[in-house]
Write a structure and sequence with these properties.
It comes from Paracoccus mangrovi. This protein is of the alpha/beta class. The protein is built from 10 helices and 16 strands. Strands 2, 3, 4, 5, 6 and 12 form a 6-stranded mixed sheet that branches. The protein has a 5-stranded mixed sheet with strand order 1-16-13-15-14, sandwiched between helices.
Length: 301
C-alpha cells in the first residue's frame, strides 16, 4: 500500500491560494468560499490546469468536484486523481442553488431566453416552462453570467450561482429555481502534502474518510475476495467505482471511499487483506468527513 507521490516543497508565492476550474462565480468558486474563505481563489481553464497550479506552486490547494447527487461522477476526474501527485486533505458538499440572473433594471417578465451550461438548463425545465423562457447553451454557468453582463440585453438572463450575479453585476430575478432541491456536488480539497494527523472534523466529530485506488490480481473472484476484508472487519465502504485504464477493457482500476483511518485496527486489517488481492493499492487521502455526511448518515438510519 502506497501514498500518492509527493513533490518537493512549492514556492511561497502560491501560499494561501486555492485553485478551481471555471470562471469566477462558478460553483467550484462557491465551494472555495464556503470551505476556504480565508484563501484567494484562483480560476483555471481545465481540471488539469488546477492540478498543475498546485504542483507548480501557483496555488497551495485545489478544489475539485468529483460527483453530483443528480448526475453522478464528474467525467474524467477519477482518471486525473491517481496521477496528480496530490493528496486529498478535506471534502465538502455544496448545494446547487440556481438563480435567474438578469441585467440591472430587468424584470422576470422581460426574460425570453436564459443561458447556461446544458446540465443546469436541464435542472430548471419546470421553471422555464412555466415562464415561457427558452434555453441558450453556454460554455459554463459563470461564463454565461459574464456573457449576459456583456450583452446588457433586458430580455436575456443567465442560470448560475448567486455568487456569479454578485461578481458580474447582475440582479437576481428568481432564486432556487432548480427542479430538484436536494441537488448537491461533492468536492475534494487536495494538497501537495498528505495530512494524517487529524482525527476530528470542524465540529469535533471523529468520523474519518480514506480514499484509494486499486487494481485486483488476475485470479478468479479477485474483487469478491478483496472486498471480503471490509465486511469481516466491519469497515463501511461508501463508494466503489470502476473505470478502464488506457482504453483497455481488461485493465480496470477501482476507486473507493471508506469510513475510518488507516491506523484504526479494523481498517488496517481490511487494507492488509485488500493488498493481498491487488497488484497496486494507492491511498489518495485521509481526511475528516464533512459534517453534512455525518448528519445524512444519521437521517438515513
Amino acid at each position: 500500500m502506497t501514498q500518492a507521490a509527493t513533490n518537493s516543497t512549492p514556492p511561497t508565492e502560491g501560499r494561501n491560494v486555492i485553485a478551481f476550474q471555471g470562471e469566477p462565480g462558478a460553483y467550484s468558486h462557491q465551494a472555495c468560499r464556503s470551505y476556504r474563505p480565508q484563501m484567494e481563489a484562483l480560476p483555471c481553464r481545465t481540471f488539469e490546469d488546477v492540478i498543475e497550479a498546485v504542483r507548480g506552486g501557483r496555488a497551495e490547494l485545489a478544489m475539485l468536484p468529483v460527483e453530483n447527487s443528480t448526475y453522478g461522477r464528474v467525467a474524467d476526474i477519477h482518471h486525473l486523481l491517481p496521477e496528480s501527485g496530490l493528496h486529498i486533505v478535506d471534502e465538502g458538499f455544496v448545494r446547487v442553488r440556481i438563480s435567474l440572473l438578469g441585467v440591472p433594471d430587468s424584470k422576470l417578465s422581460d426574460i425570453t431566453d436564459a443561458m447556461s451550461h446544458p446540465v443546469l438548463l436541464g435542472q430548471c425545465r419546470g421553471f422555464m416552462r412555466r415562464h415561457g423562457i427558452r434555453g441558450l447553451v453556454g460554455a459554463d454557468t459563470a461564463g454565461s453570467a459574464l456573457e449576459i453582463s456583456r450583452r446588457g440585453e433586458k430580455s436575456l438572463a443567465a442560470l448560475a450561482a448567486p455568487l456569479a450575479g454578485e461578481i458580474y453585476g447582475l440582479e437576481e430575478l428568481a432564486a432556487d429555481i432548480e427542479d430538484r432541491h436536494n441537488n448537491t456536488t461533492r468536492f475534494l480539497i487536495m494538497s501537495r502534502q498528505p495530512d494524517l494527523s487529524r482525527r476530528t472534523n470542524s465540529e469535533g466529530d471523529g468520523m474519518m474518510m480514506t480514499s484509494f485506488v486499486f487494481r485486483v490480481r488476475n485470479i478468479p473472484a479477485a474483487l469478491y475476495k478483496a472486498m471480503g476484508g471490509f465486511a469481516t472487519n466491519g469497515v463501511n465502504m461508501t463508494k466503489l467505482e470502476s473505470y478502464m485504464v488506457d482504453g483497455v477493457f481488461t485493465a480496470t482500476q477501482f476507486y473507493a471511499d471508506i469510513e475510518g483511518h488507516p491506523e484504526d485496527a479494523h481498517v488496517a486489517r481490511a487494507l492488509e487483506e485488500l493488498d493481498y488481492f491487488t497488484t497496486s493499492l494507492n491511498v489518495l487521502g485521509v481526511y475528516p468527513a464533512d459534517p453534512l455526511r455525518a448528519r445524512q448518515s444519521v437521517e438515513a438510519e
